[in-house]
Amino acid sequence: MPYLLPHSATINKKLMLVLAFGNLSYLEACTVLGERLSSSKQLWEDIATIELRDTKGGYENLAGVHKVAVAITPNPHARLDDVKEFDDFLQGFDDDFNFSISLYSPETIEETEYEEVLSTLLSVVREAGFRKANLVRPRKGSEVLTREIASRKIIDFIVLKVGEKYWLGATFYVPDSQQFTMRSNERPVVSSQISISSRLAKLLLNLSGVKKGGTILDPFCGSGTILSEALMSGMSCIGVDRDKNRIDNSKQNLEWLAKTRKIPKQSYSLKVGDSTRLEAVMDGVQVDAIVTEPILLPKIAATPSLDKARKLIRNSSRLYSESLYSMAAVVRKGGRIVIVAPSLRTEEGRDVSVLLEDVGAAGLVPFQPTSEPFEYPARMAHENTRWVRRLVYVFERA
Ligand SMILES: C[S@@+](CC[C@H](N)C(=O)[O-])C[C@H]1O[C@@H](n2cnc3c(N)ncnc32)[C@H](O)[C@@H]1O
Fold it and tell me: Which end of the chain is more exposed for a tag (fewer CB within 10 A), N or C?
């Protein structure tokens, strides 16, 4: 996928991230960029800013960002029509570029506000001498989407509304999310009821910290979405499920992937087994990390009552606590466990969640990607179901 700006424009170390999965994407960015970060902050649900110590990139591997933008100014400005750095920035471009303005705010953005920002920046661009630059408007709302930016090679200016001020940036990288959609939809067994998306699977693998050549285990592998993305990332993988049909599903999907993407067959193995007893199932084999989603709860037709939610969550909590000990026993020292847990929003508007808190006895500690403590669970934004949400925990084996 393209870098959309000339390289000279991207050497600034302060970046803005438009997050696809909110807090979870922020955790991914902090984990992948880790020690290279000199600062990071999630400004609101879908926006974070980070500062890198170098200009070596690394964001190409992030699955959870919609856009990576370079900050044109180091800080927000009260007015958009006198930003000197913006004039300087524009000098790098040819006469006839396509450009767009995407406005982000933690509050709802009124159409009039977007129009005001748009006309101010349009005047600045014209006054800087770019008569032929072509303004592309969003199809709806105040944001131009990544697919359009990439296909039409648009220079997408980002405006963050921080309090009463505006912070200006320019998108320079958008990931190719279509490859994930293709892999999710084309595989032989698509079971969207239990499956996470390929994109989310890749994000969870990024949280595991495992590199090419390492081995991950998914002890609740279902139809093998996490395993497939592990293979795509050059890892080896082991899948366990107690249901033989699911193991057959995974087998079909991985065979298809191996054939269509030329992955060596010996990179994966699948076993029928009970993951509350992994030591026996794995027979002494240890892995670099575990990445898994044990339960997404049975399908329910309507928002549950508090009583019903508590009952559902209590039932699944048991499986989580039993299997966490078992997982800790088969992950190597220093290896991570990335685990998705469900949370239910009740008709009373309360959240009832599987909470994984007392894990010290299992020899696990919460993984911290930076010196700033990250507060678990990471919450995933923009879910398509209204009452089941995903929470994510990352533990490290002490
Ligand atoms: C939510 S699905 C996993 C979906 C998977 N991430 C995917 O994308 O296809 C959970 C799986 O856990 C399996 N499972 C439930 N309890 C188990 C246990 N005790 N041991 C092993 N597998 C179990 C179920 O058979 C089911 O396939």
Answer: C
274 close to ligand 1 (CB < 6 Angstrom): yes
Determine the Cα–Cα distance for residues 390 and 205; give it in Å rounded to an integer.
16
Q: Provide the b/e sequence for 351-375 (b: ≥16 CB within 10 Å).
A: ebbbebeebeebebebbebbeeebe
Structure-model confidence comparison of residues 348 and 25, the more confident one: 25
For residue 194, the one-letter residue type is I
Q: Which residue has the higher pLDDT, 150 or 253?
A: 253
How far is Cα of residue 192 from the mean position of the Cα atoms in its chain?
19
Q: How far is the CA of 91 from the centre of ligand 1 (A)?
A: 55
Q: Measured from the CA of 323, which atom of ligand 1 is nearest?
A: 19
Q: How many C-beta neighbours within 10 Å does residue 391 have? A: 21
Cβ–ligand 1 distance for 101 under 6 Å, the answer: no
Closest residue CA from atom 22 of ligand 1: 241
Reported as a single tens digit per residue, the pLDDT across 161-188 is 999 999 999 998 888 888 888 888 888 9
The CA 113 to ligand 1 mean position distance, Å, reads: 47
pLDDT tens column, 212-250: 999 999 999 999 999 999 999 999 999 999 999 999 999
Closest ligand 1 atom to the C-alpha of 250?
A: 9
Q: Does residue 386 surpass a pLDDT of 70?
A: no
Report how far ligand 1's centroid is from the alpha carbon of 5 (Å).
43
Q: Which residues on neighbouring strands pair with residue 52, listed in sequence order?
A: 37
Report whether residue 320 contacts ligand 1, using a CB cutoff of 6 Å. no
Domains and CATH numbers, the chain: 7-173 (3.30.2130.30), 178-397 (3.40.50.150)
CA distance 250 to 223: 4
* Token pair 């406005």 in the structure block, residue: 103
Q: How far is CA 151 from CA 4, 85, 177, 353, in A?
A: 10, 27, 13, 41
